[in-house]
Write a structure and sequence with these properties.
mainly beta, single chain, eight-stranded antiparallel beta barrel
Length: about 190
C-alpha cells in the first residue's frame, strides 16, 4: 500500500507547473551580413560574427503561451582598411545593446519543446572610428537608437524539475531603428522556473 502511494505521487512531484515566472541567461553568436564601407575604402577586413550575452525574465501563462523580456549586448563588430589614393587607414568598431519583448508559443502535442517567438526590440547601435595618416589621427563616435522587430524559433527541454536548457535562433530587424541593420542570433542557455 505504501509503495503504491509513493508510485502514485512520484510523477506528480517530477512535473513542473504550467504557469509561473522564469529567469535565464543565454550565450549567443551574432552575425550580420556586412558593415557599410566608406565609398573609397580599399583592403578592407571585417569581423561580422561576434559573441553576445542575453539575460531574460518571463512568465509562462499556460503550457503553450509565455511572454518574455530580454536584455542583450554584443561584443564589437570590427572593420579596418585604407582609403584609396592616400596613406590614410581606419579602424571601426560597432556594438549593439537592446531590450526585447516577445510572445512565445510552445508546441506541446506533436513536437514538445519546439517554440516560435515574435515581438519587438528597442536597441542602440554604437560605433566609433579612428583614422590615421602617419602620426596624425582623429576619432569620432556616434549611435542610433530605435525600435524594430524580431522573430525566431527554438527548442526547450527540462533537465530537472525547475531547470531547463534552451537553444534558439532569433532574427532581429531594424536594429537601432534603421532598416538596414539586421542581425541573426544563435543562442544556447539555461533557465530556472520558480
Amino acid at each position: 500500500m505504501v509503495v503504491a502511494a509513493m508510485m502514485a505521487t512520484g510523477p506528480a512531484v517530477a512535473q513542473t507547473s504550467d504557469n509561473g515566472v522564469y529567469v535565464g541567461v543565454e550565450g549567443a553568436w551574432v552575425t550580420v551580413n556586412s558593415i557599410t564601407r566608406p565609398s573609397n575604402a580599399v583592403n578592407v577586413s571585417e569581423t561580422t560574427d561576434v559573441g553576445a550575452l542575453r539575460g531574460l525574465v518571463g512568465y509562462q501563462f499556460n503550457k503553450n503561451l509565455a511572454l518574455e523580456l530580454g536584455y542583450f549586448a554584443t561584443d564589437d563588430f570590427k572593420q579596418s582598411g585604407g582609403i584609396s589614393g592616400s596613406a590614410t587607414t581606419y579602424d571601426l568598431k560597432i556594438n549593439v545593446k537592446g531590450t526585447d519583448l516577445a510572445v512565445i508559443y510552445k508546441f506541446t502535442e506533436f513536437l514538445p519543446g519546439l517554440y516560435l517567438k515574435a515581438g519587438a526590440v528597442y536597441s542602440k547601435v554604437s560605433g566609433s572610428v579612428t583614422a590615421r595618416n602617419g602620426s596624425v589621427s582623429a576619432s569620432a563616435s556616434d549611435s542610433v537608437s530605435g525600435t524594430g522587430y524580431l522573430y525566431g524559433l527554438g527548442y526547450d527541454f527540462n533537465v530537472a524539475q525547475n531547470v531547463g536548457i534552451r537553444v534558439g535562433y532569433t532574427r532581429y530587424e531594424k536594429l537601432g531603428g534603421e532598416s538596414d541593420n539586421k542581425g541573426n542570433m544563435y543562442s544556447a542557455g539555461v533557465k530556472y522556473k520558480f
